[in-house]
Amino acid sequence: MAQSSDAGDDDEFASLNSILLTTTLLVLIFIGHRINTNRLKHIPESGCAMLLGILLGFVIRLAGIKEEIQLLQFKGSVFFYVLLPPIILEAGLGLETQIFVDNLGAIFAYAVLGTLVSAWVTSRGLHMAAATGLVGLDSSSPRLGILCHLFGALISATDPVATIALFGGARFRTDPLLHSLINGESVLNDAVAIALFATLSRHLDEEDPR
Fold first, then answer.
1. What per-residue confidence (pLDDT) applies to 7?
2. Angle between helix 2-36 and 45-63 (nearest 10)
3. Alpha-carbon distance values, 192 to 11, 45, 89, 109 (Å)
4. Helical H runs in 103-174?
5. Across 54-62, average pLDDT
C-alpha cells in the first residue's frame, strides 16, 4: 500500500509539473506573439519572462507545495550545464561575424578588463560596507575577503538581456557596431566570470584565504 501511495504521489507531482510547464510556455508564446505583432508595447520578451517567473514562484510558495519549492531551488550545476549553454549558443549565432572580428580588441577589452574591474569594484565596495557595518557581514572573519571577491565575480557578468532584445527587434534601428559590441561582450563576459569564480573558489579551503 505504501508503494502504491508513493507512486500515486509521484504521478500527481509529475502531472502538476506538466500542467505548470505547459501553461507557462503557452503564456510565453502568446505574449511573444503580441509583442512581435506590436500589440503589446513598451516591454520586451525577456521582461515578460522574468515577471511570469516571479509570479509563478510567488504562487507556488503561497500554495506551500514543498515538492515544487524544492524543485525550484537554484542549482548551480543546472544553470551552468543546462541553461547557460543554449543562451550563449543563441547569442553566438546571432552575432554579425565580420563586425565581431573587426572589433575583437574592443570586445575583449570590455569583456575581460571590464569584468575584472567590475568584480574588483564590487568586491571592495562590499568589503568596505562590511567594515563600516552597512551590511550584516562579520568584518573580523578571515574569509570575508575571499567571499567578497566571490560575490564580485558572481555579480560582475551582468548580461544586458533586455537591451539586446530591444536592439534585435524590428522596432529599433540600432547601429550594427553598437549592437555587435554589446552582444559580443555579453557572450564573452560569462566565460570570464565563470573562470574567475572557479579560480577564487579554489581558495575557500585555505586557512587564511585572501
1. 53
2. 150
3. 42, 27, 16, 12
4. 104-108, 114-131, 144-156, 161-168
5. 79
